[in-house]
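From the thread on structure requests for the teaching lab: each student submitted one protein with a one-line request. Submission from student K.M.:

"Model MAM and LDL-receptor class A domain-containing protein 1 from Trichonephila inaurata madagascariensis, tokens only."
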Amino acid sequence: MVTNSGRAFLVHRDPTKFTFLQLVSRTLWNTPATKRLDKLKNTYTNCNALLVEGGIFHNLTMVPANYKQYATRDTSSISPYQHLLKRIKRQEFDADVPEEPPDPCDFGVGAPNLDMCTWLIPVNAPPRSRWRLGMGELSAWIGGPRADHTTSDRQGGYVFYETSYQEDVHQPVIPTLPKSTHPMVGGARPLPQGAGGSSVDLSEDPGVVDSAWFISRNLSRTGPMGYCLSFFYIMEGLSADRLIIHLRDMETAENASLWEVREGQEGSWTKGELAYTYDGFHLIIFEAVTKSTNDPARPFRGHFALDDMVFQKMGSPDLDNCFGHCTFEGGFCGWTNDVEDDFDWELGRSSKSFLTGPSRDYSSYNRDEQTGGYSFIDASFPRRPGDKARLLSPNFLATGDNNPVCMKFATHMFGNGIGTLRVLKRVPGEEAPDRVIWEVSGESGNKWYRAQVSVSSATSYQLVFEGIVGTNSLGNIAIDSVSFVPGTCTITPQTAAKNSGDCTFEEDSCGWTNALPVDALDDFDWARQYSYSVTGPATDHTKGTKEGYYMNLLSNPQAPQRGGTRAWLISPLFSATGRTRCLSFYYFMYERSIDPAGPSLGSLRVHVKSAAGEAGGKITTLWRLHNHQGQRWQTARTPVVMGSERAAPSSPYQIIIEGIWGDGRVGVIALDDMSFFDGDCSSHPLKATAVIGECSFDRSMCDWKNNTEAPPPLQELGSHRTTTKFTKHAQEAQEGLTWRLASIISRPANLQDHTFRAPTGYVFFDIFNQATAQNPVLRSPDFAASQNDALCLSFWFAPFGRGEATALSVFRVELTPPEGEKEQRLLIWKMATKKFDTSRPDWMYGQVSVATLTAYRVEFEGEATDGGFALDDVTFYDGNCQTRPERAAVEPPPSEKF
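Reply posted by the TA:
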């Protein structure tokens, strides 16, 4: 029964759904509780009913005579809604046939038709801690995604929970319309009371609740095959923390967490699936958890949303969800034994030996439950060491390069004769052997362990559990609770990640090492640590706790660091396989104090370095991100490719993670959960994509080359050479005619690097006291023609010196001129120092469109007799752009000449 303004509803429950049965009179509602139940029993017969009174759920059972009947008011509570949600005690069925699962729910289309179906929320939950109905048209007003999942438009319905909370709101309250007297049951109305006025109502303090519950109707036992619950979810915004699914037993009032996710796909709908079995009456509860109220992210807008909730029976012919999931309690769920191995996997409930195998399945381990099963290999007679049993999955569809899945499962490997458990990837129809993607050998103790591995494939594939018999008969190996979730995951346990590069950093650094000081490749180190001080993130990413480990970029404790100092974290040596791989990891880049001049935290970069030999140790930059990105762990992804042709490495290689401090150094740069999977993935985030031809000139000129014609050699004067002092000045003058990297002893005065505000880290030319103008040229690598009309060349430049005739020009050089003609140079950008104050050089931004329909290169050409230019942070963006500064435009516009 639900009250609102003195009214009440009796919520009728048939075997498949809730409906509103009747508005109960005020007289009945004011009747004492014990008599009220009797009156309701006499009024409504042969039905099941759920009485909801003041936000507390009571069981009211009115059923045919062949059912045992109860009418109870139980006070057991569920955390955190101890005062809101009370245990529902269901009737005991004499029949053993499980009830049908609830009907699917898409939450309707259009405001008048939005509906929560059979799902409920605690009625007394504070207004700011309620799931509510919404749709895209209302998202800018009351929150939620801009479109639902079912129809992908702004009219489709969903449920959402707004996660932000602002304490001590100091703003005028706009008078609201009178509160609606219409009942609002279980969030069935999409708009708040007083809709049309202000959403600010300080008449009562709703309190601060950090989670919200969305509750299924009461569910009966699932049967041995179990249920598949599928749904789509979104979690977006800084204040959203995690989404959890609980199962609540209606007899014992105990809860078990079945599923959890701590990050969403940045505002896009993601599919969630849960296969489970339960031999009793239960509820499924979605719990949306926000950041804590003392977290600085809590005031920021965010939300959780759910759509397309579907319960299906596992094993049913029309099952189109939970593909490959299995609890092994009602069979193998589509997994089959290989006919070409030595023996078979079996189903079991408990080992027959004290010395090997599990005493119960994974879900009932350490729980007093009498249900549950698993799959295992029996190593007893007639098995011999080395015998293999393979369990084959159904055929999975191709994942694509950017959509790997994470297979999760439980393992039990107890006994002194334990052999090996492997997960292999098989591509049907290919002659290539199965490839091992996960492997553990030897005993791991008498307990269940969680395991996981990323899987991706460009074609359809199968997964194979391969159990290999060990040295004696005490070698039973068991698996249980196989499931799949979208996205990557680091191989777990760490011992299964041999030479893979995957690492959670919980046990050690998995072969990732700092550069040796003797190599002089960097200035300081990365450190594996947990959150024991303010020098790192508050929690790691793997566990989400202060006890979890990650890699943190340190500064040199011996001396203050200048901007541009760096540390290299180097992977183990990987063999070339001919397959393109993708590196996925999590990063944390947070600057606690932003300088008035702008962010200056530093940079995080990923490089691939070929082994010395064929490619001569060549380094290719794959991914880079600069400065502050937020106070949270974020996901990153990059393909591992070499050179401008972006090909898979053809020789052994290593990955280098480079952390560079900027001028500020008041913040955190950290890494966690490194993993690799097959596929030529796209870079993520998109802005971190390394671009061919870009260069920040920190330690090298990348693929840019000085193309200035060599000056004439120094001449002897008569029969005597010039003096040493004269020769030195002459050599410096000749060097000034070329583009070169800034150094501590040779650089323009009072000019810091643009990237990190370091003393060095850019290229420049300076020409002084020359009788005629000199023209140093900096040449880019050659670029192939592309389908895009143009790219935008972006760079930073700084003029200096005394000469008013000093200039910087940009040319596009045509590499495929008509036959018989030379390369054509087209001037597309030019800036002179005239009217500039060059007494104290400063960085200015430049950009210009470059046509790309034919092969080309870019050349920066200087011109000076008494001055120079510095250049930094050259890169390219897709598409045309306006020339900057405007006075650098060349007439007629370059687009008219291409």
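TA comment: The longest strand covers residues 302-313. The mean pLDDT is 79.
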